[in-house]
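DNA gyrase subunit A
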Amino acid sequence: MTFSQDPPQDRIIPTDLRNEMQRSYLEYAMSVIVGRALPDARDGLKPVHRRILYAMHELGLTHDRPFRKSARVVGDVLGKYHPHGDTSIYDALVRMAQDFSMRERLINGHGNFGSVDNDPPAAMRYTEARLTALTTNALLQDIEAETVDFGDNFDGSQQEPLVLPARIPQLLLNGSSGIAVGMATNIPPHNLGELIDGLSALIQNPDITDLELMHYIPGPDLPTGGQILGRSGIRDAYTTGRGSITMRGVCSIETIEHRGRPDRDAIIVTELPYQTNKAALIERIAELVNDRKIDGISDVRDESDRDGMRIVIELRRDAYARVVLNNLYKQTPLQANFGANMLALVNGEPQLLTLKQFLSVFLDFRIEAITRRTRYQLRKAEERDHLLQGLLIALSNLDAIIHLIRHAADTTTAKQELISTYELSEQQADAILQMQLRRLTALEADKIQQEHDALREQIIDLLDILARRERILEIVTTEITQIRETHATPRRTVIEQSEDELGDIDLIANEKSLILITEQGYIKRMPVDSFEAQSRATRGKAGARMKEDDVVEHFITCCDHNSILFFSDRGVVYALKAYQIPIGSRTSRGTPIVQLLPIPHAEKLTSVIPVTEFTDDEYLVMLTQKGFIKKTALSAFGNIRSNGLIAISLGEGDQLRWVRLARVDDSIIIGSAQGRSIHFRVNHEQLRPLGRATRGVRSMNLRKGDSLVGMAILPSQVVENVVQAEAAGLTGDDDILVEDNAELPLQSGPWALVITTGGLGKRVPVTQFRLQNRAGMGILATKFRKKGDTLAALHIVNEDDELMIITSRGIIIRQSVKAISSQSRGATGVKVQRLDEDDAIAAVALVPPSAEEVGLADCGVEEAEE
């Protein structure tokens, strides 16, 4: 053993510590960024994932071959390509096989590969794996056709691909997350079909913008489904590379039946936000309940099975489900934010990419891969055709070549003589010498000639592909279209409208709809066009499939862009946009209203009002069960909190029953169950405006046993007609009434539409209802044909109006006002709807006028250009 004779000070190399630390740390950082943490923008894979897929490809583990032990795959990857420990390799393999982690799995797993509860997978010696069909067809296809570069592995003993020849934008398809040094990436998964549609749009229009691409790729499509609230975070991520996307689980409110105990509401969770641990979520809810940070929950249990996820959060009897659900969204991972950071490697450098840049980088890579594949195919075709040309020369000079070979001293001599005599290449001469005798037949000669002709056509086609970019783009489109047809799946994640993004209302059609609410709290929205006008006295169509003990209570018509105000008997008002109410068919029960509004069980809806705009020149007129009335400016209700707003103060035992829109020059007609009515002005003398938290004044002095059934608003121009009729003595008194059932001459209207619970109705000219002072006894509005019949509805109508009439059993008819005859206040009316013995008229609503009737669109349809 020899030792250095140099003194120690000569073996020390002086180095500046700052420079050495900077150089070493930079090398380490770049190694982590490029070789470990960030995906490549071309195939969307990190090195470990790429090495696993390539090793499985080498092992022949395609989707149509048997599974192989995961330990075998991990061993191959570890020994050949990725010397970083078997745990890291197996963890990456497991993730590619989890359907709750990957939007489209790249590996098929057989065995325990973990769960959404964060349960660990079984050991690699127990599980088995193979590639999926998508991986084989879309990531590894043509890898032997020189489409991508290969490089040495860690010890130089093997060659590995530096990128896979992906046919789809895999980085956006399955997303990626990674923490490097000084930077991180977090890319959400997307829908395969939408990505291919967006890529096709980019090919057709290279100048397309990120926002235009969002018409094809509206947002992420997460493996666990769930909901995304709003589009602003998606828009930021797609246009800037960074954005916060709000995710929310899918929840419903159901009634749980208990034998021997009262039924209770429960929140049912069927889908979770992406990357949410189900077990940790349940534990978090339990902690909040124990710490009394969330009230109203009596039990939490996991009822998930192989058929799907189901978390049951049972509530106490006095709890309001919507309030509890909002608290869960706020305090638990049931609602979470996905911080999108669209960072990926482009030419070995980390770059923050927009949606179009992602697709452009992939498209450029795909064009390069097809170009390289075409060159490879061209070279192979030319090499084969070169040999065939030599064989054709041999066949055309067969006897001379046989003679030359038979008289040659050895193979080398024969080869040289063939080259020199017939100007052949060495490859052609070798092919002739190796040609079998059976290929000398005429049939085999024809086959060689046909193969040569086909190769010449192929070579011409390949040269044309290389010469024209549009041919390459056609190939890209064809390949991705085939993948879309075979592997695309429907979207799982629903992108919901956010309350903070009012601009997106422009994307919602403003159609005419009717909204129906039942006594047991079900609500639905139906297009008015689904009901055709019918003649009077028909049975109509079913408008709701209800329980036997349920009846329809509220029924209005509106436009989908309207704000709908819901007033409860306790004087609280809630608000929704009409389009936020789920659409239901005529035979559906609807959606429990507690899923949409925070209405406690003790409250009951009594009025529903559609509002187009909250202005100061309109008022809400409110009438209580005990006859107290008040008007409040509509603008006071323009900003209603999610948990409601006090609309009126009520006395003990009183309830808010009716709410109507009116202007200061209008008048009010109020009807009672015994068929009496009172008519007075809305002006500030009769009814001065009051604030929200006030009680109001008395409206009508009721007789014993009588009760109010409704009120209607008369517009100002009609009020003037009533004043003129009163001056002319045409209004009449209760002692001087037209004979029962006598019809009046046709008038231009408007009329007071009076309909009884027994199905009788009539139109009474409003001029017969003289103006009175508030708080009087009123005058007669109708007589009743049968004992026990009562007044059901009182509306102001015109001759061209249409009605929607609904019974307590949910039968709806749409009828023209013309079909109901005009009669006096003392008449009993005509039959407007045939009723079964146990049925009765429940509600009557007016259909909004069409765009043609008002000249311009009532529901947002713009006037057509000439």
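thats it. Residues 376-485 form a domain with the Topoisomerase; domain 3 fold (CATH 1.10.268.10). The radius of gyration is 40 Å. bye
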